[in-house]
Amino acid sequence: MEGLFDARVRLCIEPIGDPDPTALPPEEQALIAKAVPKRRREFAAGRLLARRMLGEFGVPDQPLLRGEHGAVPWPDGLQASISHCGPWVGVAMTDAPGISGVGLDIEFAKPLEEKYWHVILTEEDMCHLQSWPQQSRPRVAKRMFGAKEAAYKAQYPASGLFLPFSAMWISVNPGLTGFEATFRQHAAPWKIGDVLRGQFATLGDHVVTAVVSES
Ligand SMILES: CC(C)(COP(=O)(O)OP(=O)(O)OC[C@H]1O[C@@H](n2cnc3c(N)ncnc32)[C@H](O)[C@@H]1OP(=O)(O)O)[C@@H](O)C(=O)NCCC(=O)NCCS
Would you state the pLDDT for residue 102? Predict the structure, then answer.
């Protein structure tokens, strides 16, 4: 995972394991009171890892709540992102000035079946996909999906907007190590044509995607 984010961002990915949701502050426990056990475990793992990292950044312990559209309202001066998938939980966190958001996404590397492409991919995405050999396309499409989710998370703190999958199109580099996400709609401070850049890394049978936004 080294080099996935630049040196300003701390990244920690670890097994979800069997975290104890009752170790969370009551305000956080209330957020998952009605959740199924799997959701309680992944939520607790994310919050416990984020809390540990807050301590490393010298930030006082505090409940990590859920804001509008599901994003965590991070303490002032801090940007972070949580992702959980399969056995893994990850948190990326930074206090670097100038970074307006970070986006972390962990996904199974399993190719994205063609029947889902129309949900995720725009005309420009499809055009980009055509430039790949046919047999690579489902795998590249899955990268495009992760890229969109990570870019969405990274832009969210600055725009405060929920963006549909049609809001950006993705161009993946030939080595499958990085991508550009181009805005197809205005999402102030970004305008149509603005670009966020991101990186991919492989973690066993998962792909980890990282985006930093500076606005
Ligand atoms: C929010 C979303 C990106 C989460 O992705 P996911 O693969 O389902 O789940 P992950 O485990 O990777 O991420 C979940 C975490 O993302 C964070 N999150 C949720 N909404 C968020 C938002 N609006 N902004 C930033 N982070 C957000 C939360 O911390 C959440 O974990 P928690 O509920 O335990 O706190 C996804 O559910 C979604 O709504 N996608 C549609 C929007 C989108 O991707 N648009 C693409 C624009 S081109």
Answer: 98
Candidate from 43, 48, 83 with most ligand 1 atoms within 8 A of CB, to mutate: 83
Supply the pLDDT for residue 103: 98
How far is ligand 1, taken at its centre, from the CA of residue 156, in Å? 10
Q: How far apart are CA 70 and CA 167, in angstroms?
A: 18
User: Each residue of 19-39: pLDDT tens digit?
Assistant: 999 999 999 999 999 999 999
Hey, what amino acid is at 83? S
Name all domains of the chain by residue range, CATH numbers in brackets. Answer: 10-103 (3.90.470.20), 108-203 (3.90.470)
Q: pLDDT at position 19, please? A: 97
Q: How far is the CA of 30 from the centre of ligand 1 (A)?
A: 19
Q: Which helix (H) or strand (E) holds 146?
A: helix 137-159
3-state secondary structure of 179: strand
Q: For residue 1, what pLDDT is reported? A: 85
Q: Measure the CA–CA gap between 184 and 191, rounded to whole angstroms.
A: 8
Atom of ligand 1 lying closest to residue 72 CA = 29
Contacts of 3 (CB under 8 A, 6+ apart): 199, 201
Whether this prediction's pTM lies above 0.85 is answered by yes
Those residues of the chain that have pLDDT short of 70 are none
Nearest CA, atom 2, ligand 1? 149
